[in-house]
Design goal:
alpha+beta, Glutamine Phosphoribosylpyrophosphate, subunit 1, domain 1, 12 strands, 35% helix, 5 helices, 5-stranded antiparallel beta sheet
Length: 241
């Protein structure tokens, strides 16, 4: 399984994904689940993936190939699409197509496969947008009421986002929020694991301004996790009923 979370706040976008792929207790591997596409100064698009690795890898590969194809058009390339809405539609159509192809091959064995994606970014003269793309290719987008999206094992990391994330949340606090959301998930679900990949996109920068990988044992992540645990314990003791 996996956990990916994206925050869309007034100052920009913060994305975080784990890298664990689990096909059983004795078959655990590390695969990147965050992919960035840029035309610096013109547009930036980040995609995070969850679900069947065969579906997500094929979908990302085809999307990447379409961006450099000689016959690329605004209808086929996410780097040429006229809006982020069109980008989400291109990603959704490709995801649905690949999913159908893989499921057809698996149906003979009575098996199925599925995947979902978070697509976020901005193009010049457009606003920042973030979408959750479902296996069927349809999608929803982040709003002021719900400025975050999650895929994978989302339930453990959702409470803190519900409580603290608002459109006016700063980028620094947004990074803290996604890391604490991931920390809660890591503690509660063994199918989610480090390393973690984080990306930060500032509003109107049209590029990924910060990328960072947190390896297992990262001292800053560990210190943040311990401080959060201590703060929760202290608050719990102070609460009266």
């Amino acid at each position: 399984m996996t956990y990916c979370v994206g925050l869309l706040v007034n100052q920009g976008i913060v994305l975080l994904s784990d890298t664990r792929t689990n096909a059983g207790l004795d078959n655990i591997a590390t695969y990147r689940k965050m992919f960035n596409f840029e035309n610096p100064g013109e547009r930036v698009i980040s995609i995070m993936t969850a679900g069947s690795l065969s579906i997500t890898q094929t979908t990302i590969s085809r999307l990447a190939e379409a961006t450099v194809a000689e016959d690329a058009t605004p209808e086929t390339s996410i780097l040429l699409a006229p809006s982020m809405l069109d980008v989400a539609e291109i990603v959704g159509n490709m995801l649905a197509k690949v999913r159908a192809e893989v499921e057809e091959k698996l149906s003979a064995m009575g098996q199925g496969a599925s995947a979902s994606m978070i697509v976020a970014g901005q193009r010049r003269k457009g606003r920042m947008r973030m979408f959750l793309v479902y296996p069927e290719g349809n999608f929803i987008q982040a709003t002021d009421d719900t400025p975050f999206l999650q895929i994978g094992e989302h339930k453990y990391g959702k409470p803190i986002l519900d409580r603290v994330v608002r459109p006016q949340t700063s980028l620094a606090d947004a990074q803290k929020a996604v890391l604490l959301s991931m920390d809660s998930t890591l503690r509660s679900n063994l199918s989610v694991g480090m390393p973690l990949d984080m990306a930060v996109i500032e509003r109107d920068a049209y590029r990924v301004g910060l990328t960072r990988r947190f390896e297992a044992g990262d001292p800053e992540f560990r210190a943040m996790s311990e401080a959060w645990s201590n703060a929760l314990r202290e608050s719990f003791v102070r609460v009266s009923i």
